[in-house]
Amino acid sequence: MPGHRRGASFAPLPQPWEAGALTPRREAPAASPRRLDAWAVSAVLDRDDTKGVRVEIRVLGPVGIHQAGRGLTPVAEKPKTVLAALLLAGGRVVSDARLREVTWGRTPPATVDQQLYTYISRLRKLLSPGAAILRHRPGYRLVLTDATLDHAEFDRLAGLGYDALKARRHAAASAHLTTALALWRGPALGGVTEHLARVELPRLEEARMAALEGRIAADLALGHHDALVSELVGLVEAHPVRERLRAQLMTALYRAGRQADALAEYRRGRVILAEELGIDPSSALNDVFQSILSGDPGLTAPADRPPETRVQRRRPVRPAMLPPRVADFTGREPQLEELRGVLTGHQAGAAPVVVTGAAGAGKSALAVQAGRLRLDSFPDGQLYADLAGSPGRSKDPHDVLEWFLQSLCEPGTPLPLTVDERTQLYRSVLAERRVLVVLDNAHDEQQVRPLLPGAAGSRVVVTARSRFTALEGARQLELEVFERSEALALLSRVAGAGRVAAEPAVADWLVERCGLLPLAVRVVAGRLAAKPHWTLTEMARRLADGHRRPLDELRLGDLDVRSSLRRGYLRLPGEARTALCRLSLLRTPEIPAWLTAVVLETDESTAEDVLEALVDARLLEVSGSDRAGRLRYRMPPVIRLFASERADDESDGAERRSTVDRALTAWLLRARAGVRALTDGRPVRAAGALPWSDAERIGLVAAFHQADADGHDATARALARTLAELHRLHRRPHHHPAPAGSAQGPGPGPRPRDAAVYAAKG
What we know:
Oligomer: single chain
Largest sheet: 5 strands, parallel
Distance between the termini: 41 Å
Radius of gyration: 32 Å
Number of helices: 30
Number of strands: 18
């Protein structure tokens, strides 16, 4: 996979403006037999043919990673143990100390920290893009992005089964619990160390037995006692002190007309409990015994249950799920008017409006505001669902449909089991109604399709970060960041117009530092409103570079810029996450594809695909085309803050420095190649180099500033000399913009040294 290799070398650079001029050659690293043995996998790691196929991770049986039926699991016990420990934490942070203990026990080797980091690094590559392992000191956290974990799916299905059991929907309970139990492929945690198995295996096995007992309870209620007897005999033999299983066996025997056998089973259980545990039977087991002795009719027949399907008879209460209007909603007048017009129009069909934009752009607020202003157009109510779910895992349409149907149908109406059946009922219920449906924070078209009404009377608004161009008939409404005037208006409205008027330059700097992102501006304004004794300058100081972690300042209650960005970041393929983090380390204002190829140590074509994936995720923007006709990209300020945090958390200092070294060296090689092309006397090459030199001038100067500021002294001197030579050849001054992402607060900063002067001194 691209991005795995170290020690890339670069081809000669006679024509740096041509495609692929700085494409690094990837060389296979030498690996010892021991390393290959520890990380042997059951399939080749080149998974280009499995793109788009969901990764499956398993712990309910042998621990493994699978994609498209192919195993990608490390053979060695210790990396499997690290993987399993992270998975079983359910998204919580697992400390380094805990990972060391469950992997090596109480006597870890001297190199334990190095080995643990190696395991984490390799597991990240194996899991990508299905899951991400994030560094959260003092440990690591694993988050599922586009992967399924059998343990999580087991818990979900078992929960549905228990809920159905409580509601006496026994067929549904049996179906859910049977499906959950089918996920087990033998004893859990196969292939991990005894240290982890000793701690976690009892908990997992107890969950399996509880689900098994629940499924048997549902089947008994359905009258399947004859078929259960043989299964229960084997289970009781294997688990002689589980009293619920013995009570279920006694019940099944009694209902099958074998009263004597049922009583004998009780007596056998009483002896075993006394001999092995020194206790008497529980009250529950005694109650079944007494019911058998007395011929209790309640024990004879299956419990009453409602039919699994029933047609609703009367009109239910009108649903009103739409959240309240945003009190300080500001700007967005053209978009609001367009959306209101769509909601009240008379288009054929119920094609949705998809409001797209970056995280924090105000998509949800716009959808709610427009819906609230047109409530009179939807007399049968509003349905609303936030489809985001937990980080890295979207809500299942199956569950959303259950929620919607409970609001639309007669109370107590049993619901179908499958998504398709629920969608059919949902569309039938809405066929003669006029309802507004708002599907907020949708992940993809597949998640949305089952939730679309079939009739023309209702309207649907979807908010999403990606453009849902595969959604048939959808109308796209793009939401960009604020205009500067809108951002300042919101700041004034919430923080106070007098404070903004008193420090206008600082107010401008604050909204620019927020990247004109509505969520970030709203948080800054809210924090200022909560701190009336703060000046705008104090808020600016807290957001400036070098002040702890600036994103800590962009959090106000449940409004959190970091959390909002994290959701989209975790859904990225692993290579795109790596690219975003590494690019954030560079201070070039614009990002060309060749530079991305350098930091990823891959080819330029792959780099272009990665950049476009980041644009689709709204984490990069296209800044335009340069004079050479190549696309250029930029990283918004807030995204740069987030990505640099992730780079600090997910990579070590050596890796970050290596990335910057490669990038600065590549800039130097390109600059030198440009000088050669302009001076070798060949007009054709010189003519080609001129637009290249214009396109790269700002990036070259920014690279010089970064090398100078970060202590890359030799590279800084070489860049300065080369820039001075380019300056002489062009006979026009170079511009010296502030490095991308730098923010030292409002007002003029120190003027950077002129490259030519620096070169003369060096």
